[in-house]
Amino acid sequence: MTRRAAPGRSAVAVPNETGMDVSIVVCTKNRAARLAGAFAHHVRLRSTREWEIVFVNNGSTDETAAALAGFARAAPIRVRVLDEPRRGVSAGRNTGWRAAAGSVIAFIDDDCYPAEDYVDELWKCFAEPELGYLGGRVLLYDSADYPITIKESQLREAIPPRSFIVPGVLHGANMAFRRDVLERVGGFDERMGPGTAVYGEELDIVARASAIGHPGAYDPRPAVYHHHGRSRAEEVRRIMEIYDVGRGAYFAKALADPRTRPHYLYPVARRLAGNVVHCRFAVMGRELYGAWKYLHG
Questions:
Q1: pLDDT tens string 153-181
Q2: pTM, to two decimals
Q3: Are 120 and 190 within one domain?
Q4: Which of 125, 204, 234, 272 has its CA 20 to 30 A from that of 263?
């Protein structure tokens, strides 16, 4: 049974009432043609823990449902498939973690392939009693793709409670939380994330967890390989612009929330000043647009 800790602290990673240690939640939409590559890596996972993969079909209109059902029937690992027709990855992730059985809930993207030791390395990280959440290493799978949306650092980075969460310190393609932390913060903001008007959902949920007293970390041990498929300069430019807009939404929400505001006033003001000094007016414009879009959208 999961031990509960005092407010602002997390329990040691021990199995909950279901006996399940780790759940990996993967949301997917209209990726039927590419899921086979991910499936081939999921079945290679090996662990001494009790674990499962929970796929969430997030409103697909192609053959994704059939692909997931076929994999669940044939896979030699524990697989569950859920449907969430509401728009947005945050809605899908919330459906996934709330139905998941693990005491530690990991989220990886549907174009990410976990290393074979992913579950065990994740569990080792959460043996640290205070740790409430973490981001893991994200490596480039295909050298033909642009080296973006990855984090290759081998150095662990601690994130103290009540911190300003620096964009890029964690990646939503590979992150994990204790279940009780997700419960305390209420999960992901369904107005943010791919499929909605603005991104920034992974920064937002970590900021809220930090604000109520949970330490976190970037830890390189649990690793995934990102097969994002972006190889053209125009694709890279477009995703970077989307991230600019999402960053602005994240800052605006943090400043509007009295729990996070004290930790964000100075860093956000400093960023605005830096944009002006270094003439990053296009980036600043997109960030301000993202702030407006979230607050008034």
A1: 999 999 999 999 999 999 999 999 999 99
A2: 0.93
A3: yes
A4: 125
